[in-house]
Here is the input.
Amino acid sequence: PPPAKPKFKSLPLILPNSYNYDPATNAVTKSDRKVTGLKAMEEGLRILSSIRGPVAVISIVGAYRKGKSYV
Here is the structure.
């Protein structure tokens, strides 16, 4: 059988506090505030907490223009 379609769209889980997320449009916008920390997105946390089973987090970091997209 074909793979099941995911139930959720992509969305941020954590953003700098100088950014805003609009779940209606799935848009992330930058404000004029100074970055002083991070904030968790409630919708993302709600979706994660509803998953019954193993969850893996994959993160790729590094200097800009060093080939992370090819990993």
